[in-house]
Structure formats: structure tokens, C-alpha cells
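JOB MANIFEST
job_type = single_chain_structure
chain_count = 1
residues = 368
[input]
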Amino acid sequence: MRALQSVRFAIAVVLGTVMFATPVVAGPAESRARLAPLEARIRAGEFGNIHSLLVRQNGEMLAEWYFAGPDEKRGEPLGNVTFTADTPHDLRSVSKSIVSLLFGIALQDGAIKNLDTPVLDYFPEYADLRTPERMKITLRDMLSMTSGLHWDEDTYLYTDVRNSETAMDAAADRYRFILSQPIDAPPGTRWRYSGGDVAVIAAVLARTTKMPLEEYARIRLFEPLGIAQFAWLKDARGIPFAASGVRLRPRDMMTVGELVFDGGAYDGKQIVPRDWIVASTTRHADVDPGQCGTQYGYFWWIVPACGAAPAWFSGIGNGGQYIMIVHDLNAVIVSTAGAYNDHAKQGLTRKMLAAVREALGGAAPPEH
């Protein structure tokens, strides 16, 4: 599976199923009735190795289903797992969206002052990299994956050291590895999927908050949300895998989704600044060209409204991990699955999500 192609296809399929459907928000009873047959289809294996599906609409949980199947912990096989409400799961690249939330909190805390600060200002040890060209790369460019630095997570599998993220994880100094990459395009002009950009932003968070990334996440995000059970997987040197290392229960993924749906507020308290939620889920780069093309915010995927199709945004992770927010349907959808690095099987997950959207929107999708 090629990471970028898989995510692009995921968005294209989920968007395409509602392209010509007028969103009609169903009532709770109607939505439950429409969703109900889906559970049996999942248990019958129609959508592959699905581990959980949670659906919340109009503030009411309509589905919270758990299944069984093989799983892994960032590549480490866990065998066949019977999932329950208390079983943690890899978020994979949904972790990037968690990093975005933390960045917004750090801005509010005053730890970070300006998105247009050159990123190398936070890495004084790399004085040799402070060339005029590299000093143009800002935090904003990293957050929108438009740093212009050479990066390729698409051509090679993550098991291949030629994959940029895999090579980064194996490097003696991951931040020098990232920041010394050739400059392929002027900053801010070209989008390229990059776990390296995420790793640099995470390092900036740790340095400016003077706190390990996972500790800052615990104190400023997870504990205020009532999330006590989480893990942020680390490399052999104790550095968190910022782009793909978070593990949460699906219920807690839903809590994060509800936080974002509600503009960063939870239980009457503003956890993440509202203006940051707006900024991070607003277009800052084009992933695909065209009027209806996929866009990218600050570590969030965005699909604009197109024709009758509603806009939506999501954190998306390898294997079928989603936190999807659809304001036009008043809905948050969470899925976990075990289709890691398998493009065809992830297509089954996307078909399931399309069926969920159809149930919530009350419109039949066109044939594909």
C-alpha cells in the first residue's frame, strides 16, 4: 500500500458516494434503523477486518460496535483480538491530527508565538543548515506539509528503508535528517505528505513547552477530556513517533472528534482554542487539483462541499483508522480496522463508511 495514494483514494471513494446526494439529517430513530443492518454485514465480513465503528449524530450515540480480528501494534503482531470498549487501538496517522490539537494549545499557552517563525530558529544546534533558502521554511509550512523539503512516503512500503519515514526512524539524528533534505520546491508552494514535517513540529512542541510530547498531551489534552488510558509509542531512544504512535480506545477517539466538532470545547470548557480548530480545518494546501479536489489544513484532511455533497474533514490513519467530522450531517464517525498496508482491504473500510454516511444523510449513493 502506498500511503498517499491510499489516503487520496479513501477520500475520493467516501466523497464520491455522496457527490450527488442532498444531505438530509435523519432523526435518531430513523438513523438507528438505517444503521442497524450494517452491524450484521460487518460481522459477516463484508467489509473486511473491522475492529470498531462508532457513530454519533446530533449529540447522541447511535452505534458503538466492537468486533474481533487480527491486529498489530505499529507492526508488532498482536494475534486475534476480541475488541471491547476498553481495548486500545493504533491511530496511526490520526496521530498527526492530535499533534495539530496540541500545537493549538501551545499557541494559547504562549509557548509558541508565531506560525511564521523560521523552523530552524528552534534548532540552534544546526547552525550549518541556516542557509537563506532553509531559513524561509516556517512553522506554518511544516503544519500544512508545504515545507518544500524532499520527502517520499508514497513510492516505497514502510517496511523499505527507502521510504522517507522509515529512513527517518533509522537515522542517528532524525531532526537533522529531516531538515537537511534537499529543497524540492519553495516553502508554501507544494504539498507533499510528510511524517517528517510532523516530527519537526512535535520537537518544537517539546522544546517550547519544556515537556515531553506525551506528557504535554496528557496534561493539556487527554486529562481535560477525561481520557486516562492512552499510549504514545516511542523509538529505541525514547522519542515518540509523532506522526503515527498514538494508541487510544475508540470511545476516546470519539471524544476527540466531539471536541473538534464543538470547536475545541468540552464539558463547558475551551480545551483547544476555537480559532485554531477553524484554522487547522481550513484549506492551506491543495492535495489534488480541481474545483472539488482534496485539501489539507494543519494536519487535517479536508474535502470541500461540492455540488450537493457536504464538506467534511478527518484524521485518517493507515489500516482504516478515522475520526471524521461531518457538520452538515451533525455527525462524528470513528472507525478502527486492521487493513494495514493493504489498499484493497482498506477499500472495504471505505465502503462501510460510505454506508454510514448514506444512513445518516438519507440519500442513496450513485453506483461505482
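[summary]
Confidence is low (pLDDT under 50) at residues 1-6, 12-22, 362-368.
The first strand starts at residue 50 and ends at 57.
exit_status = 0
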